[in-house]
Specification:
By secondary structure, this protein is mainly alpha-helical. It is built from 16 helices and 3 strands. It folds into 2 domains: 3-17 and 40-117, no CATH class; 123-183 and 198-212 and 245-410, no CATH class. 61% of the residues lie in helices and 3% in strands. A 3-stranded mixed β-sheet has the order 1-3-2, covered by helices on one side. Strand 2 and strand 3 (236-240) form a beta hairpin. Helix 2 (44-65) packs parallel to helix 4 (96-117), helix 10 packs across helix 14 and helix 12 packs across helix 13. It is globular, with a radius of gyration of 28 Å. The model is unreliable at 1-34 (pLDDT under 50).
Length: 411
Amino acid sequence: MRLPLIAGLILLGSCSSQPPAASTSADLPASTIPETTTSVTIPATTKKRFENQIAKFILSEVQESLPGLQGVARVQFLRQKSEQFNHDVNHNLLSSRMLMEKDLLDYLLISEDILLHSDSYASTLGALSSLDWKPDTYEQKILEELNRIDQTIAALASNTSKDSFNHHVHMTGVRKTTLYPEDTFNGRQTYLDRLSQEMVNAQANWYDTYNTYSPSELSILGEEGSTRSFHYSADGLVINLDQVKDLPAFELKCLAAFYGFPGLQSFIPHPEDSLRSFLNLPAYTLGWAGYILDEVGTRDLGNKLDYLYFARLQSSMALADLKLHSDQWSIDEAVKYITENTPYTSHRITLMLGQIQQNPGYYASALGGKLKFSELKSRCLAEGKSCQADFNQQIIDQGPIPFEVLERLIF
């Protein structure tokens, strides 16, 4: 794509170097004709503009063509555009925004190639998270997070009982005593209405989570006969209403904050000229929803345990993700472990484990992202960086992007 531009510059130089018509060798002695060379110096700003325009054109082709491609054709196209970018564009003259888009293009190529061709669970984790953690590192961090959650639950729950705290007994008790929707059409509709109201309440209660408050709307739909429990997408949140015992009342405010505001629904749609919308990074999106839910839980003083139960479920699923795909657990063992350690039904857990089997690395990478956000926030505080003041806003404004790119932007 550069050839027409370069040809134009060469033509401009050759035109400007022609001697005037009146000055010929016939008019002057040969000894008086000076040997001169006329060159055109292109301003640096013009060079930068040209390079950025070429980069923008290549990226626009990716934007236009990628949605219609799948599988091998998609990966081949991304590779072609990445190589074209490297060959045709001087990276040293690009704006910071174009450099970031090139990083996203390269990450798209790598991650989609891995997800298409690799049978390695470790590679899949890397593609879904952008983290360079090994599975053993994930397991260590997940176990530490589970221990933190369990200790916090014990500290809060033991204050309400004079007896010594037993984690398994406590979870069984919560499962038995919590409220569930009535097993009728009206009961299910009431559940959806209550969740909608909790979405509104979350925006009213936690609007100060970000520097800039952006109201959001999330469509909530119920379904029956599905093999999934909850499914979030750009079209809305779809909930399996088959068994009302899968829908405990304590979870409503957690679902509202996690899927709605200030969680997943807070991500601001980016302009069409950014590749961020093509990234599949549950570590960033779901990881952030999990991180921000913890922040909400510490502020909602009267309902801290409810948020911890939800966090315990998410962390348990992350552990099951690792154990199932390393052949350390069977499905039955995973169901038993999570049922004993959370107040959720075995049916709900079985549905979620089915999603883990279909999407290896999904829950583990999401929890990895949550823990990474916690590390980044702690780093801001420890280093006295200005990012601590608007950390939450930066995460929403910049993402989803690979964590390596995020760190370059905020530190």
